[in-house]
Amino acid sequence: MHFTVFTDYAFRVLIYLALEPDSRVTINDIAESYSISKNHLMKVANLLAQAGVINSSRGSNGGLELARQADKIMVGEIVRLTEDSFQPVECFKADNQCIITPACGLRVALGDALQAFNEVLDNYSIQDLIGKKVQLKKLCKRT
Questions:
Q1: 65: helix, coil or strand?
Q2: What is the pLDDT of residues 7-44, one digit of tens each?
Q3: CATH topology of domain 5-85+125-139
Q4: Other residues' Cβ atoms within 10 Å of the Cβ of residue 77
C-alpha cells in the first residue's frame, strides 16, 4: 500500500507536536524542521484541526498543539482521515465496470487484507511512533 504525501505530512505534524506536548508550535517551525512546504503543511493542519485531532490558534501566542494525548490518536484514524479511498482495484469502485466481478474472488481477498491492515494500524498510536524521543528531536533539528 502506498500513502499520499498528504498522509505522510499529517504524521510528521502529529509526531512533531507529540514531541512538544506542553507548547504550541508554528507551521513554520515544522516546515523548517522537516524542510517541507509550508503551504502543504497548512492544508494538512487545517484538515487535522477540522477533524479535532489538533488545536490551531492564531495570533502572537498562536500555533498548533495536539487536541488529545498522543496515546489517544490512533494511526488508523489518521490514515482513514487523510487517504481519499482504499480502492486497490476496479471492483471496489462505486462505478465498477469490471465484467468478471460476479465470479471473481479478488474483491473478497483484498477486502480481507484491507480490514486486517486497518486493524493493525488501529493498534498503534502517535505515542508509539515517538518511541525514540531523544533521537527524533535531534533529527527534527531540535535540541
A1: strand
A2: 999 999 999 999 988 889 999 999 999 999 999 999 99
A3: Arc Repressor Mutant, subunit A (1.10.10)
A4: 17
**Residue of 10, 48, 13 lying closest to 27 (CA atoms):** 13
Short-list 58, 92, 32, CA closest to 41: 32
Which of these ranges, 27-31, 70-74, 87-91, 102-106, has the smallest mean pLDDT?
87-91
- pTM comes to 0.86
Nearest of 123, 14, 118 to residue 66 by alpha carbon: 14
The region that residue 107 occupies, defined by phi over 0 for left and psi between -120 and 50 for alpha, beta otherwise, is: alpha
What is the residue extent of each domain of the chain? 5-85+125-139
